[in-house]
Write a structure and sequence with these properties.
Blueprint (H helix, E strand, L loop, with lengths): L6 E6 L12 H21 L4 E8 L5 H6 L11 H12 L10 E4 L3
Parallel strand pairs: 1-2, 2-3
């Protein structure tokens, strides 16, 4: 990416990175560290034309999550395709002015 003078990196963080969630200490801290890394990499890589962003879902509607969480917890779960669309947007040219962002994808 440095050789090309452009590029885009998109990480997947999570809502518990910014909103304290009981029972998810290790997960929340690791996602908070990732979100902070996005901001640091933005500062380091933006001068080289490389954008760094993240999407932060709350809960993704997957078969595993449907088997773990009660139905009421899944009422606002986001489809994996919707998360993929946000990632594709952030990686693409339409998001060229966006870097260092943690984009929430919390569902309806």
């Amino acid at each position: 990416m440095r050789e090309l003078g452009k590029g885009s990196i998109v990480h997947v963080s999570a809502r518990p990175a910014t909103v304290p969630t009981a029972g998810l200490a290790a997960y929340s801290l690791s996602k908070a560290a990732l979100s902070y890394l996005v901001r640091i990499l933005d500062l380091e890589l933006r001068p080289h034309g490389i954008r760094v962003n993240a999407v932060a879902p709350q809960l993704i509607d997957t078969a595993v999550n449907r088997s773990i969480f009660p139905a009421e917890a899944l009422t606002h779960a986001v489809a994996p395709e919707a998360i993929a669309n946000v990632i594709a947007f952030l990686a693409g040219d339409l998001a060229a002015p966006v870097s260092g962002a943690i984009v929430p994808a919390y569902g309806a």
